[in-house]
Design brief:
- The complex is a heterodimer of chains A (341) and B (584).
- Chain A has 16 helices and ten strands.
- With 341 residues, chain A is α/β, with parallel strands linked by helices.
- Chain A has an eight-stranded mixed β-sheet with strand order 3-2-1-4-5-8-9-10, with helices on both faces.
- In chain A, helix 9 runs parallel beside helix 11 and helix 15 packs antiparallel against helix 16.
- In chain B, a hairpin with a 2-residue loop joins strand 11 and strand 12.
- Classes of the chains: A alpha/beta (341), B alpha/beta (584).
- Chains A and B meet through loops of A and strand 10, strand 11 and helix 15 of B.
Amino acid sequence: MTKKDFWNKSTIAVMGGGSWGTALAQIAAQNCGEVRVWVRDDDQAREMNSNRVNPDYLPDLKLNPKIKALSSLERVFEPKVQAVIWALPSSVCREQARNLAHYFKGDEVILHATKGIEQGSLKRISEILTEELPTRRIGVISGPNLADEIARGEPAGTVVASAFEEVIDAGVSLLTTSRFRVYPGHDVIGVEWAGTLKNILAISAGALDEMKMGWNSRSMMITRGLHEMVRFGVAMGANPSTFLGLAGIGDLLATCSSPLSRNYRVGQQLAQGKPIGEILKELGNTAEGVRTTETVHEFAKKNKIDMPITAAVHRLLQANVSVEQVLQDLMSRPAGDDTIT
Amino acid sequence: MLPPEIPDFSQESVTKVKAELAETGLPTAPAVFLEGPLTVFNAIRPRILSEVVDRTRQELTAAPIEMLLTSALYAERQRLKRTRANVFTQKRKKDDKKLWSGIQSGLLQSAAIVDRKPMLDQVLAHYADEIGGRFDPAVYRFATHALPVGFDWLLNAASLNKFNPWKMTERVESRLNILGEVDLLRKLSNKGTILLVPTHQSNIDSIMIGYIIYLMGLPPFAYGAGLNLFSNPALSFFMRRLGAYTVDRQKSSQIYKHTLKNYSTRILREGIHSIFFPGGGRSRSGAIESKLKLGLLGTALEAQVNNLQEGRNKPNVYIVPMTTSFHFVLEASSLIEDYLLESGKDRFLVMQDESSEFNKIVSFFWKLFKAQSGVTVRVGKPLDIFGNFVDEQGESVGPNGTRIDPKLWLTTRGQLGFEPRRDMEYTRELGSRLVERFHRENTVLTSHLVAFSFFETLRKHYPDLDLYRFLRISLAQRSLPYEAFLAEAKHQHEKVMSASDRGQMYVSEDLLTTDTELWVEDGIRNLGLMHGASVLKVKDGVIFTEDMSLLYYYRNRLAGYGLSHLSDSRPGMPGQHDEKGFLE
């Protein structure tokens, strides 16, 4: 049986019925036999199965008939699934993995689409999954993938990275469509850190835009920010060239340009002079970048990794300083070499 | 070469030997050592060797034979030029030369006249024969009984300073502290094939571990030992017949590497328990192994996949880490010089070379016994081929109490079998988990901690010197006030004790005290045992070292735990992991 045949007949579980989980389920449904989407809420499952839409997240997307929404874990994993797409928020990653461990048989392939890290431990999602699940064949999906654009069928691309060739094969076979391209990669560390670090820069992008800065400042921030991402990534064991790919600069550009991102909105409101406590209360949902900034900044300081923009964002989040003041300080730093070091 | 003996494997003979052993009343170990596949090894040897040759030939078909042979010829001619034969290795060298001259003249003719295939076969057979050990139960019996008696004599003579063979009060076992998962190892040895992977510090290790295996009541294990060890006829005699096969690190050709790998896999598949030193050789720096030879480790997975495909019962291979802790290492000086030379290159100045001889092994045990000192060996928690823990039933335990079915982990797209990239990744993970286990299962001795504390405290006084300049500071600079040192040592002791409480390392009994002076003195005494210069000495309220390199060597046993104040952050240094800190 060829790889493609195998995946065409396979059953896929998608953990998490948020917008990205639903969009990925829709894509995978074009390339496999059945997709079971696990959602926590019975009502949501019923709605998705009967009305064929996911009303809270992607109300305009007509779900593929091969998609089945389930709220019972037993039914998601029985009969057997060949691949699991993990699209749960990073904050509940470990807890959920613990709950789900017993459902895995061991020969499944896992593709996770979660951006973020475990705060404090600095562990990446694939590390957490390896620690908690009885399987090692894990990969990551990451790129400039705003879910609603993909749901609308606009052309887009992503990276699937894993140390396991068969996981990459699964990602390519399951997720490639006429409107969605999948690029294989092996640098899991780089891809996962890129997806995390860009959230810090999204905050600064929001702040800059709110200050009505033009393209020059924006480009400088993104480029110099990318340097910081590379420095940090390399310290964590990443391959620097990963940051020039879709999961790096690709995702960074999309995130820094989309006013929809929560991190971007945090930046905007900081620039308006709102205190961070109030902003977070208002946004209802914790913006990933806020806590990431804290963790990354701390680690970088301890390990002497030069990250001035991250430090600046950290200052903005900590104290009552204006964006203008922070900008001033950044601009008065002695300029180092422009090549990535 | 010794004449081949024809062992008697009849049931009667085995029963008789067992009865004889029971009568001797010698060190008590269950007489299971005459069972197990290794004891019938000579009978299956020809079959195994021919299978190794076949398999290696198959693996090598991808490359053109001509290329393989010419590159092997080149490497071998270089090697033969480099190595000097002694009285015992003359014959081997002559045989090698003969073979390769033949190959050369063959290669000089066109392939149409001289077929390359038989030439490759000839080389393969030659290598396989050299690698393949012989096992002789009679010698094993002799060795495992003569050695302890010899050890006991030596022990009594050394520690009592007078020797009376009829009144021996000490037994060598009393000087070997064997700790850890001994029972689990015994159980698993009946449920699958054991691959014992010890840390490696000294040439003593293979002899000592062989003996420990016997003391634990396990059948003999096969192990790969450096060909150089076989050049001593006395050692060679025992090693050959204790299940050792030869590994020649000088041979770098693809053909040799494949043959060696296939041989060790084939042995494992036969269900013969084996020993690999996964670090490749002795630790040069003195640090616990942090880089392993994955190719060698991967043979465990390969053997298990084969077993599963052939539907054998007891298909599992269990990886059992073992750590050895010595107060002193015979070859420490030459090892650390080697290491510094390689890592420091021009920044390190070479001193004299130290040769290691057979006498040194006797001398090691003499000093060991005389000093009332011991060796601590810990059998670590067994792992499966992926690095998961294994329970008493021999089943793999996954995260959150899940069971792991190795068959499913070895199944890709519904097919059980090999998958090179996947298997490499599994083995890489096994390797990194083994490194972690080595650190956690390590027993810290007083001497290690004393060396570490002194080195680190002294280093703080010279923050601007790089390691190589630091190692060359003058005698006058290498001292600390004893009282001040004790305070630092107390602090390090506290850190180590709390790490041990968290299960990140073990400490020896001598460290279980709050009396700093007590353990420090014990450490200093033990450190100085072996070497000409004192590693540490206290005089007139001052503690100092006469040999910085040796101090560094013993200090390195505690590298990699993140305990260091100042990390030697250059890549490849034992301290490079200090920055990340193995400990959380």
